Structures are given as structure tokens and as C-alpha cells.
Amino acid sequence: MNVKSNSRMQLLVLFIIAASLVTIAQAIITTGVVYLMSDFSVSSTQAQWSYSVFLLVVGVMIPLSAYISRRFTARTIFFFSLIIFLLGSVICYFSTSLIVLIIGRILQGIGNGIIMPYVQILLLRSIPEEKWQTYMGLYGLVIAIAPVIGSFIGGFVITLYGWRELFSFFTVATTILLVLGIFLVKDDTPTEDYPLDYLSVILSIIGCAGVMLGFTNVADYGFTHYLVILPIIIGIISLILFVKRQPKLEKPLINLPILKNKYFMVGTTFICILFACLNGCTALIPIFIQGVAYNSAIISASVMLPGGLLIIVFNIIGPLLTNRIGIKKVLIMGCVVSIIGFACMMFYTQDSSFEFMAITQSIRYIGTGLALMPATTWTLTMVSDKVEDGTAVNNTLRQIFAAIGSSIVVVIVAILAGGAIEHNTASVVAFNQTSLIMLVLHVVMLILTILYIDDKEKIENKNTSA
């Protein structure tokens, strides 16, 4: 291996470590939502903003990924993203109200939203297309380990020391990475003069934030309140203006015509549903276990740990199986296993045992792990000649749906429970009904797989013969 290859591998490893760190920050706060509700005297849907706003900001930042990857060097991206993340961690640690905490989480989300898509672009640029499934599986393994271990450790840290100590960890870890970056990250990545359309950035921010804010407020105000209707209307109008503006730009913020590729659109839809349900459960399960079943954050984290470890394993198995038996069979397996998991969740009660919840969450995670990386890689291979734009569009929509999913799932349960998620039968029934909704969404994913998704070679041969 020559010096340049060694340098690129060194760069990739450090970026993947940084990506793992900022990924831990995404979900680790979910185990402390109940504590935030108590400390700041807020509702579950309001406290959930500490998680949802992070996802939303990441979703808003990802459209910039194509611009950032072309315009700035790896060194600039590394230091800027981690310094912003570090500042957010410090603010979260010293926060005295939910608003201040959310400001810190916004900054953390900006750092995550810059570095995560760049790592994926850097990886796909560095390896041949025929090896994408394998290497994306390895990348998915590393990224999957981070939130699982983080959530488990987070449950213990929050219970024993308080939620603020989570952010002291991020402060120390980020500082160490920045010091390592001084010596290991070089300015050897190519750049180009790529213009940024500021109006598109503003419209995308207003659009995404408005829609999510409106839906999040439903649980507290009902569907007819102006704090629900007004943000949604403003958000939708902004998104319409954003979509209409992109074709007029020589170099758009997001290359929306890429969605005209039927298979890329199907794959992106599949991934959006998958992430909406995945993040919805990530937000909802701790609230159910702690707020409805009256268990500790340690129990909540322990219930999720086995499944979290299994998703790590199946993040590797999924791509390997895809290389052997094809994408269609793997995604069908993933959907069916997930459907079984959601069906089991429909039978949760306040008295459900630790073993039953851990096993059923493990089943759900196995299905997700089987489908996650194969679906992502397959979708990008459909537009392999436009990997930067494909990554930007796919990741943007995925993250927005993940953010909306984490809010909507909690909102749906709260509405079905009569306005609040509490230790009562109504909340249990609402949880079961919401599990049914997510089961139906996975049936939709299964239908999409059967009708449209297949190996790239088979699709190309079919189109050629047609």
C-alpha cells in the first residue's frame, strides 16, 4: 500500500471514529427523556424535542452535503464540524432550561449533519462500485455499534450520575479527536468552486422546521390550534418554493430530478419508512418502559441492548447475504422479520416481562439490520454516476422522515391515550395501536420490494429487453 493509500485510509478511519461519536449523541438522550420532563417541568412531547430537534437539524444540514464535499477540504470539514459539536456539548452540559438544552442539541446536530454524509461520500469515492455492499456493511457495523453502546451506557450514567454527565463525555471525547486531527488530517482532498444558493438553504430550513414543529405540537394543542396549523402551512409553502427554485439553478442545492429515477425513488421511499419507524421506536420504547410500565432508565436501556447488538451483527450479515442471494430476498426477509416484531409489540402491557420486551425488540432489530445497509447501497447504485447528489437526496429525505417519525410516533400515542402518555391502560392501548400502524408501514415496504426492487443487473437486462 503506497503513502497516498495509507493517508486516505488514515483519513477514513479518523472520520469514521468521529462519525461514531456524533452518532452516539443522536439517540443517547432518549433514555433520559423522563428525567428531562422532571427537571424542566415539561411534557413528554416537549422533552422529546431534545431528540427530535437533533434529527431535524441533521436533516436540514444534509442537503448541503454535496456542496460541502465539493467546496471544502477534509481538514476544514473535520475541524469545523467537530468544533461546532463541541460547543453544543458544552452548552448542553450547562443548560438551565429545555430551550438552552435544545440550542446545544441544535449545534450538535449541525456537527453531525456535516460529518455523517461526508464520511459516506468519502467512502464511496474511495472504493469500486462492486465492493460497495461489503464496505458499506462494514461502515454500517461501526456506526451501528455507537448508538447501541451509547444508549446502554447512557442509561447507567443517567441513573447513577445524571443526564448532564453525558455531555461531559462528549466534550472530552471531541477534544481528543480534535487534537488527533491536528496531526492526522491533511488537506489532500480535491475541491471546486461550487456556489451556494442561500435562499434555497433558508427555504429548506423553514420548510422542514415548520412541518415538524406543527406535527409535534399536535399532542399539546390538538389539530385545529394555530400553533399546529400555521407552522405546517408555512413549512409546506416553503418546501413548495424550494422545489420550484431548484430547476432554475445551474447548480441546485439538491438535484431533485434524480428522483425521476423510478428505482432510486422506490429505494428512497423504502429507506424513509424504515428510518421513520426505527427512530419512532427509539424515541417511544424508553417512554413506554419508564413512563407507562414504571421501570428505570437502566431497565429501558437493557431491554434495547440485545436488539442493538443484533442489529450490529445483521448490518454485516445483510450485505453479505445480498452478495449471495440477491437484494430482493434479503429485503423480503428483513420486512417479514420486522412485521413479526411489531406484531409482538401489539401485546405489550404494563406488566410485560423484561424477557418478553427484550426478545421482541431483538426480533424487530434483526429485521431492520437485514434491510438497512442493503437497501441504502442498492438505492445509491441506481444512480452510481451521481453519488454525491444521490447521497444528498437520499440522506436528506431519510433524516427528515426519521425526525418526523420520532415526533409523530410519540404524538400518535399521546393522542390515542387522551393527550398524555402516563401509567394507565389508555396509554398501553395507544402504544399497541401505534405498533399496528408501524406494522402496516412495513407491509407497504414488503409490497414495494416484491414489485420493484431487484439486483441492478436484472433491472438493466429487463430494461434492455423492453
Give a structural overview.
This is Drug resistance transporter, EmrB/QacA subfamily. InterPro entries: MFS, MFS_dom, MFS_trans_sf. Keywords: Membrane, Transmembrane, Transmembrane helix. It comes from Methanobrevibacter millerae. It is found in: Membrane. It is a single chain. The protein has helices at 3-27, 33-40, 44-47, 49-61, 65-71, 74-93, 98-126, 132-161, 164-184, 198-216, 218-221, 226-245, 262-292, 297-325, 327-345, 354-381, 387-416, 425-452, 456-465. By secondary structure, it is mainly α. It has one domain (3-185, 253-455): MFS general substrate transporter like domains (Growth Hormone, Chain: A, Up-down Bundle). The model has no long low-confidence stretch (mean pLDDT 85).
Which term fits the overall shape? globular
Q: Return the CATH class.
A: Mainly Alpha
Low-confidence stretches: none
> Please, how many helices?
19
Task: List its traits.
466 residues; mainly alpha; Growth Hormone, Chain: A; 19 helices; 80% helix; 0% strand; globular
State the gist of this model.
It is a multi-pass membrane protein. This protein has 19 helices and no strands.
